[in-house]
Write a structure and sequence with these properties.
Blueprint lengths: L4 H8 L11 H5 L41 H9 L11 H16 L1
Length: about 110
Amino acid sequence: MGGSRRVVRRCLDGRLSKFKTPPREVFQGNAATNGEPNLAATDVTICFYPVPLHLQECYETLGYHKGDFPVAEQAAQEVLSLPIYPELTHDQLVYVVQTINQFFTQ
């Protein structure tokens, strides 16, 4: 890919946005015992940030509470960070997209 964020974005547009994020346990490997699809069983590393900034301990002095930023709270429950960055090769990017697509269509 050679370092172009725009190239990566064009490759991903429309390929991953159609999926609704399942419960977090599926991504942490806990669902494997229930026979559910398990992305943790692949070598695609994902991460998520389950606590929005305004609810993190380091910002508690600001005085925000649950419900003060509902969009941020919803995003914290739904958004995943995938291993996608400009230095990925085309083959690596295709692998990530295919793995995610297979996971969500199981």
